[in-house]
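Reviewer 2 asked us to include a model.

Predict the structure of this chain.
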Amino acid sequence: MRRLFICFAILTCIISVAGCAGVSQKSAEDRPFFQTEYQQSSHGKKTAFDRLFELDPGHIDVKVSPEYSECPPARIAVLPFIDRGSAQFVVDKMPVTFRNKKERDRWAWTDAQRLRRYMQGYMAAREFLVDNLTIVDAVLQAHGIKDGEDLEAVPPAALGQWLGVDAVVYGTVLHYESYYGFLIAAQQVSVRGRIVSTHDGHELVSFDATRDRTNLMPAIDPLDMVINSVQTFLDLRDIEIARSEDEACREIMVRIPVSQKLREQLVREATQRIVTQGGDLPPSLAPSTGSSEYLQNDSLNLPQ
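Predicted model (structure tokens):
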């Protein structure tokens, strides 16, 4: 038995060395940039099997208006999110903290802005030009905006003028809740919001998302029950809440279709700036029959 184990270990080492030696610098392929991406509209989107496997009964509802496809917003500002929850740490519908008014105000702001930052991050990874959150907050403060009521009273057109954007994102955190039942634990985050055009005030996108992160650890033996109860209790950690926040915003953004029209527009504007500044276009963008003819071409070969 010992000889068999030694032979297996030696064979594993030989295979590992051979595998590492097989990928040499000479044989490595050149990998060009700017390729068409696979699964851009499905990567990160949960399927029914994923929800069943992870015991996630939550829902993601995203509605996109036809106006979004016709005139997608290039520059977007994510406004401060509003927290409608209790601003307490809630387990099984019961608050386990007793925060005063000042603490509740700070925790409500903290919870709401965590989701806001995730939303801003996923939007910035797309074709949008997303304003820096610090700048957005500074502009709103300069105009006397103190809370959600003040913010909602300002017309989208005025926000567009203040921030210089084509659309604004409103968001409301409905609740943060935790559940614990010895052999099962769950974290639930719920957010609702909309993207509104600052040009005409029309709603371009609406979203309503609830993310449930559940851990079920069944057991029969009494000792296993104790061990599993401790493990599920540890699922109430802050990192698990952060994962729920991240997944809720990711699944919202993956359901908003990529605008090829906007991508082409941004490339044309970037090319125009290069030409206007008197710079040389990169070989991949340089037209063969003149810059003006290229800039009028709407069929750019952009990566998907």
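The chain has eleven helices and nine strands. Residues 41 and 257 are 7 Å apart (CA to CA). We have added this to the supplementary material.
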